[in-house]
Amino acid sequence: MTQPIVQFKGIKKSFDELEVMKDFTLDVDPGEIVSIIGPSGSGKTTIIRMLMTLEKPTGGDIIVEGENLWKMQAKGKWTDADEKHLRKVRSNVGMVFQHFNLFPHMTILRNCTEAPIHVLGLSKKEAETRAREMLEKVGLGDKVDNYPIQLSGGQQQRVAIARALVMQPKVMLFDEPTSALDPELVGEVLAVIKDLAQQGDMSMILVTHEMDFAWQVSDRIVFIADGQLVEHGKPSDVLDNPKSDRLRNFLERFRTQV
Ligand SMILES: Nc1ncnc2c1ncn2[C@@H]1O[C@H](COP(=O)(O)OP(=O)(O)OP(=O)(O)O)[C@@H](O)[C@H]1O
Fold first, then answer.
1. Alpha carbons 184 and 176: distance in angstroms, whole number
2. Per-block average pLDDT, block size 10, for the chain (258 residues)?
3. How far is residue 46's CA from residue 220's CA, in Å, rounded to a whole number?
4. How far is the CA of 41 from the centre of ligand 1 (A)?
5. Which candidate among 106, 107, 190, 258 keeps its CA 20 to 30 Å from the CA of 157?
6. What is the CA(47)–ligand 1 centre distance, in A?
7. Could you report the per-residue pLDDT of 209-238, keeping only the tens digit for each?
8. If you measure from the C-alpha of residue 13 to the centroid of ligand 1, how many angstroms do you get, rounded to a whole number?
């Protein structure tokens, strides 16, 4: 049996009095494409942020490639060696946010070489070779010397995808990657993500409100509500034949809004 690349086990998460996750459990297999859907405020972004170690779960375990993210302390407290180990495990996880957050004073190429040089320790030449290859892959091979401000929002988001890919992650996280874009720019970004999904060598966890897109690219759709996983399965099962009232109501509300 293959070991899941990512495991959430009994995750609890509260912000002061607000209990966001009550008991969230999910395994993601190598190469699997999982989309997370759910009502606004149900904790989708929080799940992604916990996996990026940007938020700490209140309880439960998050395991990446067999390593328990929040329990890596060898001596019961965080040491420099633990932090280094954590950074290494975390470098298996790439992230594309809603807002692309490129460095405005750096060229597109340099935006993509900073992390491989400083986190992975690649030489400038190696990092540039990888970055050019990834920028080519997202259709921006001719923009390496431009600055972010010279690119459209859709192009900037494609740079953000290339920047994450340069780290050769085993899992890519996308948190509503098109929601900050003008509608006419959404398609080009979704096409790049779809392409990556079809290559099949990376796992992906996507938080998206683009249901048609989720239907097309996902191996599995996960519906969360009230702090837990309510339903999951193949897109045709979850989106076309919901079993629970909560999912049925969510999809109905969603369809009347679109
Ligand atoms: N740092 C924080 N401090 C306090 N509350 C927070 C924090 N981050 C998130 N929350 C709250 O946790 C809940 C879940 O937020 P989250 O952003 O994960 O939801 P979501 O499902 O991604 O929502 P949306 O679909 O609207 O993006 C919300 O009520 C939010 O206000």
1. 16
2. 91 95 95 95 93 92 90 73 83 89 96 93 96 96 97 95 95 92 90 90 92 92 94 95 94 80
3. 20
4. 5
5. 258
6. 10
7. 889 899 999 999 999 998 899 999 999 999
8. 11
Contacts of 86 (CB under 8 A, 6+ apart): 53, 69, 72
Q: How far is the CA of 48 from the centre of ligand 1 (A)?
A: 11
Q: Which atom of ligand 1 is nearest to the CA of 224?
A: 21
pTM recorded for the entire structure: 0.92
**CB-CB neighbours of 252 under 10 Å:** 11
Q: Which residues line ligand 1 (CB under 6 A)?
A: 15, 18, 20, 38, 40-46
Residue 145: exposed, middle, or buried by beta-carbon count in 10 A (0-12, 13-18, 19+)?
exposed
Pick the CATH number of 6-92+173-257 from 2.40.10.10, 3.30.428.10, 3.90.770.10, 3.40.50.300: 3.40.50.300
Residue nearest to atom 13 of ligand 1 (CA): 41
Q: Which residue has the least CA distance to atom 6 on ligand 1?
A: 15
The per-residue pLDDT for range 140-166, each reduced to its tens digit, is 999 999 999 999 999 999 999 999 999
**Whose CA is closest to atom 1 on ligand 1?**
15
Task: Supply the residue whose CA is at minimum distance from atom 17 of ligand 1.
Answer: 45
Minimal-distance CA residue to ligand 1 atom 28: 41
Residues 6+ apart with CB under 8 A from 142: none
